[in-house]
Amino acid sequence: MEWTIGWWQISVQRVYPTNAQLSQTYNQAASWWHQHLQVLGYSHAYRELWRSLKNADMLPHSQDKLTICDCGIGTAAFSLAFAQIINPKAHITGVDISAQMLNKADQKLSLAKVPHQVYQSDVNTLPFADCAFDAVICAHTIEHLPNPLQGLREMVRVLRPGAPLIVVVTQSGLLGWLIQWYWGNRCFSQEELSMLIHEAGLTQLQFLSFPVGLARFTSIACIAFKRS
After folding, report:
1. Are 70 and 90 in contact (CB under 8 A)?
2. How far, in Å, are 34, 84, 88, 93 from residue 109 at the CA level?
3. CA spacing 20 to 30 A to 161: which of 11, 89, 133, 180?
4. Alpha-carbon distance 149 to 132, whole Å?
5. Is 102 exposed, middle or buried (0-12, 13-18, 19+ CB in 10 A)?
């Protein structure tokens, strides 16, 4: 943003946290993050989102060896909701930049007896082969990336042809801006997210509403598919 006042031009440019800064921020939050999501109703909202997708028959759920990559897994709230509603035997591969978040995710998934592995990695450079997963899921991660399109393209790379990507982001609006002010992330409108999804090479985009909780007013969810 730029303003001209008399003979002066004033510019304000968004600065995103480095990987080290982001990792440190979420390492510090890891001890209370999972309870925070539960208290604010996100864990319940995630389950209801998966339930609506299951009822619409939009997801692979009956395969014996279903493989799911959770990008920005945090404390595994989104993955746990998937396992509870869609498939408790699915193998979850969790990726996060925060080592402490990954420790919590490992504990939560182990306690729930969900098959899993966790990797500390930047989602812009996922340590997996092309076409490795039956689905990629990602909740509240791409809004932290300086270049969200790069991250989405990397998620598409590891998807099998025809497989779904499910993304949840912070949406523009008063509550979203308050979240943005505190955490330093960006917010997306539905139009902005739609543009990114299509630029990443996905098709059959559908937006989904959170039926309950604070997430209904702070978040946008969508599903789209890698071209076959």
Report:
1. no
2. 12, 11, 10, 11
3. 89
4. 20
5. buried
Global pTM reads 0.88
**45 by DSSP, 3-state: which?**
helix
User: To which residue do tokens 């989904």 refer?
Assistant: 208
For the chain, counts of helices (H) and of strands (E): 8, 9
Phi-psi category of residue 22: left, alpha or beta, with phi > 0 → left and psi -120 to 50 → alpha = alpha
How far apart, in whole angstroms, are the C-alpha atoms of residue 105 and residue 108? 5
Token output for 154: 């990397």
Spatial neighbors of 8 by CB under 8 A, at least 6 apart, are: none
In degrees and rounded to multiples of 5, residue 7 shows phi and psi of -95, 10
Which pLDDT tens digit goes with each residue over 76-108? 999 999 999 999 999 999 999 999 999 999 999
Segment (H or E) for 38 = helix 19-39
DSSP-assigned letters across all residues of 133-171:
BSEEEEES-GGG-SSHHHHHHHHHHHBPTT-EEEEEEEB
